[in-house]
Automatic annotation (TrEMBL):
Protein name: ATP synthase subunit b
Role played: F(1)F(0) ATP synthase produces ATP from ADP in the presence of a proton or sodium gradient. F-type ATPases consist of two structural domains, F(1) containing the extramembraneous catalytic core and F(0) containing the membrane proton channel, linked together by a central stalk and a peripheral stalk. During catalysis, ATP synthesis in the catalytic domain of F(1) is coupled via a rotary mechanism of the central stalk subunits to proton translocation.
Family indicated by similarity: Belongs to the ATPase B chain family.
Matches recorded under Pfam families: ATP-synt_B
InterPro entries for the chain: ATP_synth_b/b'su_bac/chlpt
Membrane association type: Single-pass membrane protein
Segments traversing the membrane: 7-27
One GO cellular component term noted in the UniProt record for this chain: proton-transporting ATP synthase complex
Keyword Membrane attributed: yes
Main location: membrane
């Protein structure tokens, strides 16, 4: 049995001696691979953290924009309401002014028509009276009035 143990020790020593370097090399390679994987994982973790910070900052800015828009919403609505009222009042004032001008023009037109009718009626009346009173005596008086008028007319 001692022989077997010794034999096993020798075989084991030989195996470790020859296989040990290879096994150590394999283990060293495996260790390097694991360390590289750990390093890559840490790099990805750092990148993910940076992306998370960037996303949080973008989200915070978006929230601030929403708050600003909500705050400005009331002011914008009030400004629009004021502008609409101002424009409406200006249009009403213009319409009132145009209405007054139209009324004035219509009155002037009516006055002209009335005056024309009065003048036409007056001339008609004068012509009728002239035709009734058209005598030589009347004609003489009219001609004398024109002669006196021309004589008194000074250049």
């Amino acid at each position: 049995m001692v022989f077997k143990i010794r034999f096993l020790n020798i075989v084991l020593t030989i195996i470790i001696y020859f296989v040990g370097d290879t096994l150590q090399s394999i283990l060293q390679n495996r260790k390097q691979t694991i360390l590289l994987n750990i390093q890559e994982a840490e790099n990805r973790e750092q990148e993910a953290k940076r992306n998370l910070l960037f996303a949080k900052e973008a989200f915070r800015k978006a929230q601030q924009k929403v708050v600003t828009i909500q705050q400005n919403r009331v002011q914008t609505i009030q400004q629009d309401d004021y502008n609409i009222k101002q424009n409406t009042q200006q249009q009403i004032d213009k319409l009132y002014q145009v209405k007054q001008e139209i009324i004035l023009l219509q009155r002037q037109k009516l006055v002209k028509e009335i005056l024309k009718h009065i003048i036409d009626a007056t001339f008609e009346n004068v012509y009728q009276k002239l035709e009734k009173n058209y005598t030589l005596e009347f004609q003489k008086e009219v001609l004398d009035a024109y002669i006196t008028f021309f004589c008194n007319y000074q250049i």
